[in-house]
Amino acid sequence: MEAAGAGVADWHPGDRVMGLVAGGAYAEYVTTPADHTLPIPRTWSFAQAAAVPEAFLTAFDALTLQGGLVAGQRVLIHAVGSGVGIAALQLAKAAGATVSGTSRSPWKLERAGEYGLDRPVLVSGAFDPSADLTGWAEVLLDLVGGPYLAGNLEAVAPRGRILVVG
Questions:
Q1: Beta-carbon contacts of residue 57 (< 8 Å; ≥ 6 apart)
Q2: Are 134 and 105 in contact (CB under 8 A)?
Q3: Strand (E) or helix (H) holding 160
Q4: DSSP for residue 130
Q5: Cα separations (Å) of 116 from 16, 35, 51, 130?
Q6: Helix axes 83-94, 46-60, angle to 10 degrees
Q7: What is the pLDDT of residues 106-149, one digit of tens each?
Q8: What's the pLDDT band for 84 if we cut at 50, 70, 90?
Q9: Are 114 and 138 contacting, i.e. CB atoms less than 8 angstroms apart?
Q10: How far apart (Å, rounded) are the C-alpha atoms in residues 113 and 106?
Q11: CB atoms within 10 A of CB 160
Q12: Terminal-residue alpha carbon distance, the chain
């Protein structure tokens, strides 16, 4: 960090910070509210830190703040192999959820398995839930949109929540 505003007490010039910036942050210098920043762990590069806030804060907002995810619930994540999808998978598992995830790529499902994916679902075209996924998802995070809507309505459990991000 180069400088901190007059009302900022927790950050000082030279601190390594990461955070969210309205409209993106493709610049050498940016200004953002202090409460939108986090410390960069000592072992992380700036490039590693740049990848974290957008994916994890988006996933946290969707699953926890908007979706009300609690331990023991079942979560379905479309595009589970994407950046936000992998972040959501890790957050859902940390919260104690059982997670199913979709992808059009077998290797992405395999990779998601390394992060704890319980139920991989390979899709091609529109999402069409199998019989064992019908009414299954208490929280459904859709990072694809459009062609998945009809399948989502079948896959969501009674009183479940569908969150579309993207």
A1: 20
A2: no
A3: strand 156-164
A4: -
A5: 30, 31, 20, 21
A6: 70
A7: 999 999 999 999 999 999 989 999 888 999 999 999 999 999 99
A8: very high
A9: no
A10: 11
A11: 19
A12: 30
DSSP-derived letter for residue 142 is: E
The DSSP-derived string for 87-105 is: HHHHHHHHTT-EEEEEES-
Q: Which residues, in sequence order, are bridge partners of residue 156?
A: 137
* 5 token code pair: 């505003």
pLDDT for 39 equals 95
Cβ–Cβ < 8 Å for 100, 122: no
Question: What's the CA angle centered on 61, arms 59 and 62, to 5 degrees?
Answer: 65
Instruction: Report the distance separating Cα 14 and Cα 3, nearest Å.
Output: 8
Longest dimension (CA), the chain: 59
